[in-house]
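Can anyone check this?
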Amino acid sequence: MAKYVDGFVIPLKKKNLKAYQKMAQIGCNVWMKYGALDYYECVGANISQAWGTNFQKTYKLKSDETLIFAFVTYKSKKHRDAVNSKVHKDAQMNAENYDADVFDMKRFSAGEFEVIVKATPKQKAGPKKTAKKAKR
């Protein structure tokens, strides 16, 4: 069960989505290679909700921009630190491999989070039924 999460929010020009997706796929492969439990990169579908302070306002998005919401899960902070140590040493993650203009690092947000509530699908209660072989 995941107990620790790295989270990211990244304003992105819509025209750069395909370039970002290529970068994200490399990141996914590298994080998973070194033991991350899950890796998600999500693009805004409806970020101008009527309730709360919506992402559109918070990030002062222009009409040609969208938002990436990404997160990586780990067993613990110790596990996160071990995975990230390897990730940051991996040659695929070197900055020179990426177009620096895909997104603005000054608007990039990141943080570490401890999981305080997690749900998983419930299993049906009771003993498992097994099929009996018919005698012939």
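Reply from J.R.: I decoded it. Strands lie at 4-13, 38-43, 65-74, 109-114.
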